[in-house]
Amino acid sequence: MSAKKPFRPKARRPRGFEDRSGSVLRAERHLVDTASRIYDDWGFEPLQTPAFEFADALGKHLPDEDRPNEGVFALEDDDGQWLSLRYDHTAPLARFVAENFQDLNKPYRRYQAGDVWRNEKPGPGRFRQFVQCDADTVGAPGPAADAEMIALSAEVMRAVGLADGEYLIRVNDRRILDGVLETIGASDPERRMRVLRAADKLDRLGRDGVADLLGAGRKDESGDFTQGAGLDLKGVETILAFLDSSGGSRTEVIGRLEPLVGQSEAGRLGLAALGEIDKVLSAIGVGDNRAVFDPSVVRGLGYYTGPVYEAELLATAHYDDGKPIQFGSVGGGGRYDDLVARFTGQAVPATGFSFGVSRFAAALAALGRVGAGQERPLVIVIAAEKDQSARYLAMASELRAAGFRAEAFAGNGNMGKQMKYADRRGAVAAVIIGSDEREQGLVTIKDLKLGARLAAEISDNKEWREDQPAQMTVASDAWIEAVRIVAKRDDKTV
Known about the structure:
By secondary structure, this protein is α+β, with helices and mostly antiparallel strands. The chain has 17 helices and 20 strands. The protein has two domains: 22-366, Bira Bifunctional Protein, Domain 2 (BirA Bifunctional Protein, domain 2); 378-489, Rossmann fold (3-Layer(aba) Sandwich), CATH 3.40.50.800.
């Protein structure tokens, strides 16, 4: 009887989840560290909430009794209560504030970065696990707190290497559209939601597509029909005029919006908030080239209660075929005064800003703003002699003390295999002490980046052997400085 074969699971990655490589993680870490430094400078405190929350604490993403996994990843605890992996950082913040309300200094200013999980259908660029970075102020009413969050988001854009003109913070107030709807007699909840959804599709469908959704409805290319908001022609024109009000200075936008809200109290409150935000932003040096008022910004249907805003990348990179890469929004936020009230029964003012770390870092990498100058150069010490491991490990230690990332090759392999290993690791230099160098008190440094470039240019082997332009041999008391010179050739400083 033959022995039963041992079970070997198939190595496979779950759909919607990704393995992130070292270069990606370093870019994301740099982005989070940079944003965190700004938040610290502005007086925010770090907070880390657990990955799991009680399912009923997730607010708008609350699973119903029959579908505890709807939208979130959930499990039943041994006491029969459902726990869910956090969907974002805002709902856990609301729970934390409610639980510790009496002990917190208010306003409470916190920032947090970490993974969030969403049990949704994955797609291109849409993952079930990703990193978000948030900053929030809880307990500060009034538009001045919103203006600070807008300025903070603009400051993060600068800090990560974007020049003014390469990004823009687009600002609106949800109450202004409510006021416009009130003036045209279309403020009932269902119609309001249809108008909001239509306005949110302006970038994708254009003005004509939105007009269809504001009116009778729209049939897409597949033949599917979406019912419209049912506004009459005058109502459609009024909403489109509202969406067309952007452009020019913040003061000019307010002037265009004033006649559209009429005497609506909600609309007037929204305009007053934008006026105060403009005053604060102007006072702290955030001009119209960094933050603008844009009525087409519609975020978080049924979630935000006042000012809303999005951080948009205007800078473009290009695909290999020369086509431009449009990045669009990389973050956003707004005022949400009702979230803590789910726990306390009492409205607690709150406003915040959040960005998706992976998406933002990928955009910055495509623009060349993350990576260059951020990742410390790697140097490999080649194990040229098997009995010299202690020396090679000590040299790697000296390199680390000098500010490099460094390792002594620890595997099995001849010189050629080790050099290939160094190339594949992206090392800037390989350090070699063979028997000849050791006896003469010398160290050989190979510039791997320059060597790779020259190898593509020099076709004559004799010329290559005679010149050896990517290699230098120096005295053993000068080898660290020689490595530093090689690293600087690759535009990386130590």
